[in-house]
Amino acid sequence: MAGLRGAIDRDILVGLGAFLVLYNLLGRGYEALSARYSHTYKGLGAFDKAGWVGRLVSLTHAPIAVVFAYDALRPYECWTCADTFMHAHDAKGVFALAHTGGYLLHDFVDLLINGRKHGRFDGGPLIFLHHIAAVCSYTIVASYPKCTLLYVLWILCELSTPFLNGIWFFSKMKMKQWRTVCGLLLFLSYIPTRLYASPATAAALYAAREDVRALPNFLAAFLLAMLTFATVMNYFWFFKIALGVRKALGGGAAKRA
Questions:
Q1: How far apart are the C-alpha atoms of 186 and 162, rounded to whole Å?
Q2: Separation of alpha carbons 161 and 217, rounded Å
Q3: Does residue 145 sit in helix, strand or coil?
Q4: pLDDT higher than 90, residue 72
Q5: What pTM does this model have?
């Protein structure tokens, strides 16, 4: 840790805590509203009710996160140039990381609580690793302000998240056609976001390899480890999404025949 020296960016840490509280309160609000107005929610089991509320919070977070990330990146002409994604560190980038970091921290705690309460975890181990990796990334930025906008750039991948949640909601509401539509949109949205992000980041890091070598060893290793993990995770999920879309379309064709 000797290389991680510098002033702590308390705005990130304070923001993480503030958005953690905010999204927790939002979840409580969604729970109360769903219990009062949603017939589908009332018919779910306790585990799925927790998933319903968690996905409503996720649906709220995703578009806001994309707007904040885009607003942070917009002033820069070249998003993948070393001067931008490695060295730029400003208030908008910090705010975008604090917002998404706070949401992920809330969701992580929520998953743990519900998993312990119901004896199973929503999303499996990859979700936990994803949340831990992201929150660690943002807190590292707070102690060593490098690669801020690189992590902000990856927040744009949240563009695909509403379609993933849509699949879950339409499944619970027995709306098979809309579930298939969301599956197709999820498949298509993955290509320019989560699939593209890995090779684009890898190419940018290679082009800026001298800057990468100049980073503290811990930070450089962590950065490469996160890229590797995110690539494996996203490509694995894309493979499963493709299988799901194929099954849905194939089943529909067989039924029409």
A1: 8
A2: 33
A3: coil
A4: yes
A5: 0.90
